[in-house]
Amino acid sequence: MSKPDALTALGEMLGDRLSRSKSDLDLHGRNETYFPFLPPDAVAYPETTDEVAQIVRICAAHGVPLIGWGRGTSLEGHALALQGGVTIDFSRMNRVLKVNSEDMDVVVQPGLTREDLNRELRATGLFFPVDPGANASLGGMASTRASGTTAVRYGTMRDNVLALEVVLPDGRVIRTGTRARKSSAGYDLTGLFVGSEGTLGLITELTLRLHGQPEAISAAVCAFDEIGAAVDTVIQTIQLGIPMARIEFVDAATAAAFNAYASADMPEKPHLMVEFHGSAAGVAEQTESFGEVVAENGGEGFKWSSRPEDRNALWTMRHNAYYACLGLRPGATALVTDMCVPISRLAEAVEETRADIAQASIPGPILGHVGDGNFHAILLVEPDNAAELAEAKALAHRMVERALRMGGTVTGEHGIGMGKLDYMEEEHGAAWDVMGQIKRALDPMTLMNPGKMVRAN
Amino acid sequence: MSKPDALTALGEMLGDRLSRSKSDLDLHGRNETYFPFLPPDAVAYPETTDEVAQIVRICAAHGVPLIGWGRGTSLEGHALALQGGVTIDFSRMNRVLKVNSEDMDVVVQPGLTREDLNRELRATGLFFPVDPGANASLGGMASTRASGTTAVRYGTMRDNVLALEVVLPDGRVIRTGTRARKSSAGYDLTGLFVGSEGTLGLITELTLRLHGQPEAISAAVCAFDEIGAAVDTVIQTIQLGIPMARIEFVDAATAAAFNAYASADMPEKPHLMVEFHGSAAGVAEQTESFGEVVAENGGEGFKWSSRPEDRNALWTMRHNAYYACLGLRPGATALVTDMCVPISRLAEAVEETRADIAQASIPGPILGHVGDGNFHAILLVEPDNAAELAEAKALAHRMVERALRMGGTVTGEHGIGMGKLDYMEEEHGAAWDVMGQIKRALDPMTLMNPGKMVRAN
Ligand SMILES: Cc1cc2nc3c(=O)[nH]c(=O)nc-3n(C[C@H](O)[C@H](O)[C@H](O)COP(=O)(O)OP(=O)(O)OC[C@H]3O[C@@H](n4cnc5c(N)ncnc54)[C@H](O)[C@@H]3O)c2cc1C
Ligand SMILES: Cc1cc2nc3c(=O)[nH]c(=O)nc-3n(C[C@H](O)[C@H](O)[C@H](O)COP(=O)(O)OP(=O)(O)OC[C@H]3O[C@@H](n4cnc5c(N)ncnc54)[C@H](O)[C@@H]3O)c2cc1C
């Protein structure tokens, strides 16, 4: 049992697809936010499920940790090699294996990105809706139970993964789920692996639900004087049953960031960005009903775009919000929060957070997928400024407490990684121990992404 | 460790809410279909979570099996006391605890039935959509991952349970999930308990998603000359993205059963029964588009009902289909099959099944939730006629093989119980062992509904 022996065996098996180069270790030791540099001992680039299973068996025989890697866009240091080991980079397993148009599903490899998938689907009249902004991999998205702007209509990865192929910590390969739309055949293992952040097994294949490209699409932005009015608009829209495809909130600071980063000309006020999908008549009806709600809440400056290029520009701007916000403070890094509450508490949650950040010495634009009750503050800190990081963490801590106090969750979509581990007990109580029991049953040696998700030991 | 000691302790705790009366044991040893009489040693009627936890601790201390019981309507002998023990009947835990109208969710006890829930919700403008026909309990429905006529639009119990309270096999009480609409905080334990058929713990509270009562509803029945034309209509409707709230298939034999049982006047042909929900304009658009698809496929005798009483009569008739079919052969009992396939294989699956049953000596009307690719044959056998039961089982076996061959599942909604255990390995392969690992981790003494769901030993 030794790490060097494992690396030798892996090298023999993979040739130059096992990398120990500085640039590879650097790349896989970095993260998108404020976590420290934590590189693995090596990076493996498998091309088949069989190779993944072999890698896992070799690492298991030598007690070497295994960390999955999709695109490294996760925000809580999920894929950092806390205890070293081998990072499995899925970038060479990035093919669409089969599009089943009639059944509206697709079989893909885990390293495929959502943008590449949708590019391949364009001619089929179908699309994959889950949309975390970043061009993440589908295996990574399944592993963090990702969602994004369209979850309010199309659901999260929980709702859009039909079946998986998984390599378990002992090298067994299993298939969970089928291509049938529903099943009552036993424990929902698909659901168990979705959101497990690579701590129970490595996903080597996914079967995903697809949706029909809508006949008509219409998008709009409108401004409000007060956050409360924007959020009330969201709540009323939901309660009226208007089926928004997207309904996003950005605060005044984020609007300012857009103006600077994307040369937008938004008033520096809170905004909603919405999109409707449906038949031409349906979209017309929805936009009209929504317009009424906006007007009642004092919204203004309504801009509709039904031209694809305008809509693309709008959502590209939204998807770059993180980088736009980083641009507000050149050289800064960010702590990105992710609270999610029942919709009735959303206005209060956003207002309290806004007020709290207003007292702080650091900027923190707020934006979010408010149709799900989910929003983020992007807390901008100077790298290596311990006082600022402490201040950001204190703000984030109060957001977490607020989420739990309001009956919500500490993370709506980003996941646990390193950043939220300390909140698992508070959110789940004894249920956290049940997660530990499951982890120990499937991964008794703690080989898979060790130090994450469950209680230590 | 003895069963008599456990029963004494439970009797002291529960008084006459621990029953060993013949009528109670009889009731809880029976099932809706063809499985033998398998009574428990006693039936407990707890009133609080605390009592459930105490019962579990007493039974655990004495190694006595525990079987949950909602309304006993499951179709695969799920709640039968294979190894005796104590049946926990949740009928006294049947309250609505809290309606959160703004958040469109509700907190309920497990013994509440879906009809009682919807009665209590009527004035709120909200409803709970999952609809297995039978007036099942919500705890039972969660435990079997039930669905029904509306799953095509509103999803199954998997999609509509937000959070649970569960008493584990060692008496610990946990809460899974929150009232937030989505979360990435750890393993999806809610999803793990949904569909676990009482083998991992007892559900003592559920938080359920609600939906707005639609502004407009319209329902219709129409007849087809051939099964294939009816099923093609379903496939095309789905591919056009017409958002049906219900789309049900019944074959000629079922139509005949309706005529006899519910004094209907349906031609003895295959039929589709559909319902649309939405705004007035939306429903009008959907019905028109659907009408076009029906006409293209040669459907006829279109009857629309937008009056609530006509719609109620229609769906009551559909919900009584099982009893109507039993009426086709007075004195018969039934084996109810439950295959579910990708929609592209549905026509083939129904036709093959129809042809197979046509060769058999027993009747087997076919009907199903075809929008999900899910259908049932109700195989009618004389009680105690071993040859007929063997013939029914052989037909059912071939349906299961067909489902798996076509990339589907052996049970779309009814679950495993006693009837499908022998197919778990075939459907899941090595993943079935993973279910066993989870079971052993949470219930090492195999106290919860023993003999079900996982491999014996
Ligand atoms: C600008 C920006 C915006 C974002 N917006 C959103 C958003 O709106 N919603 C949202 O949900 N997220 C968002 N994110 C976060 C991120 O995109 C998601 O968490 C995404 O799911 C990560 O995918 P990835 O491929 O980058 O995974 P990685 O970061 O590579 O890995 C994530 C986790 O999954 C594991 N993993 C990866 N692949 C596998 C596999 N095949 N098998 C098993 N485990 C695996 C890793 O070990 C790690 O624990 C955003 C990120 C950025 C940078
Ligand atoms: C006429 C008819 C039509 C039907 N149509 C459908 C249909 O369309 N779709 C469908 O899905 N089903 C259908 N069913 C089957 C049945 O209604 C469902 O399986 C339902 O979910 C069972 O609920 P129940 O309350 O009767 O549960 P039970 O039969 O009492 O129990 C079912 C299982 O759940 C366990 N259980 C019950 N309560 C709890 C609890 N609180 N905690 C833990 N475990 C518990 C039991 O031990 C058992 O294993 C139909 C049945 C009939 C008779």
UniProtKB/TrEMBL annotation, chains A, B:
Keywords: FAD, Flavoprotein, Oxidoreductase, Transit peptide
Similarity comment: family membership: Belongs to the FAD-binding oxidoreductase/transferase type 4 family.
Cofactor list: FAD
UniProt cross-references to InterPro entries, sorted A to Z: FAD-bd_oxidored_4_C, FAD-bd_PCMH, FAD-bd_PCMH-like_sf, FAD-bd_PCMH_sub2, FAD-linked_Oxase-like_C, Oxid_FAD_bind_N, Vanillyl_alc_oxidase_C-sub2
E.C. number(s) listed in UniProt: 1.1.2.4
Span of domain FAD-binding PCMH-type: 36-213
Protein name: D-lactate dehydrogenase (cytochrome)
Annotated source species: Rhodovulum sulfidophilum (Rhodobacter sulfidophilus)
Domain of life the protein comes from: Bacteria
